Amino acid sequence: MTTNSEQAGAQMTPAERVAYGALGAGLAVLGLRGGHPVQRLLLSAAGVVVAAQAITGRHPVATALKINQGADGEVRVSDAVTIGQGPEGLYARWRDLASLPALMTHLEKVEVLDEKRSRWTVKAPAGTHVSWEAEIMAEEPGRRLAWASLPGAAVENSGEVLFRPAPGNRGTELVVHLTYKPLGGAAGAVVARILGQEPGQQLRDDLMRFKREQELGYAPTARGQSSGRAGAGKGTQEGRV
Length: 241
Prior knowledge:
single chain, alpha+beta, 6 helices, 24% strand
């Protein structure tokens, strides 16, 4: 098994930079007004720090959490896993969009509208749900599958799955690249990461589950257990194939 993730900084969008700049200026102004000297010093220092972050354009918390976000607001996620199976069967499993919720626990459902278009509904933070329509942009059976959300999507996103021969004749290296614009920009991505709803976290779990399903014949799940610790060693075998 081989996994890896991109680790890069997070860039604020222009709107976020403006907001941070305004916040920094506001704190600095408060620091210049009356009050206890220590309070004035702390407010002024905080204003300078926040304003400096607006100038550099780097989101400190998102960067610390290794969220890779460009200045265009898109978060980029990549991961890979080597599976001891041929590419044709893996591609066929992935191409069966309606069955993906059994593999990807954050998916509520995928409705296939026609050969190219589908409607996706996913779980979001705070018990909410988000839906959008997507279209398959490229199909190369056994090699590549690419898609993108259609205009008007609540969360703009795109991605591709690559199926490559693994070195040493060990099966197939499955590589996934995703991009999405999180609700609330970098701050929204941070909140999603803290709540365990960030796509980068979900992708790694999904790939590991896919590997187990393909190599062992089942995808272990913690559904129905009161907690992961209490269920240790007692994993169910939902999704047996």
